[in-house]
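User: Before I run my own analysis I want an independent prediction to cross-check against. Here's the chain; please return only the structure tokens and, at the end, one sentence I can use as a sanity check.
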Amino acid sequence: MSTLCTRCSINSDKDLTGSESSLASWLNISTTIRRSSERSFRNWRRTERFRIGYWRGYVGSKKRIESGTSHGEEDVGVSSSEHWSGDLVRRLTMLFVVAVLVNYPWERLQSPLYVYLGGASIPWWLCLAASLADGLFVLVIFGVGWMALGRRTWFEQPGIEGYLVMLISGVAISAGVEWITVHGLRWWTYGEQMPLLPIVKIGLVPMTQMLVLPPLIFRLVTALSRYLDGTTRESMRT
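Assistant: Structure tokens:
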């Protein structure tokens, strides 16, 4: 009887040991499967992130190529455009200011050759208004030269063509303005001392003004612009 009990006990221990061994094996297998699944999931996530990032970069670069420019080119283009427009505004401002300053003394000196309404002399403020208009006329000559010669810096080295532009534009502007203000609108009239061009009856002095002063104004602006550019370069170096 005791022998039978001993055998049953031994068999029970073997069964328990085998169950524990089977459970341990199953746990090892499940742990291995779980770790393998986690590694596979992490690898999939990295692959997916890479694929999404690559696709976004590809789409973005494709859009930039299709638009014909990249971000760097856009920045360069904007910077160049801003520099170009700023330089143009500076030149136009200099032309206008210098033209007003140069034309005002001429307007004052020739004012006794005109007769204002009621036989009065030309007041100073009307000479100032005329010099402001002269500044606009110089800008018109600048625009005509730009369109005719295809260079916005044409007045810096005008040559024969540039001086012809100044001559023809000056004559056309002066003749038109004098005819409209004196013979058309009759804002004022010529005095007895005003020399007149025959046939057209236009004052010779204002005609000479638009022939002589624009080349002088353009030369002054060219010299002033070069001086300011040189001063700017020196300040940037220091």
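Sanity check: The beta strands are 114-115, 189-190.
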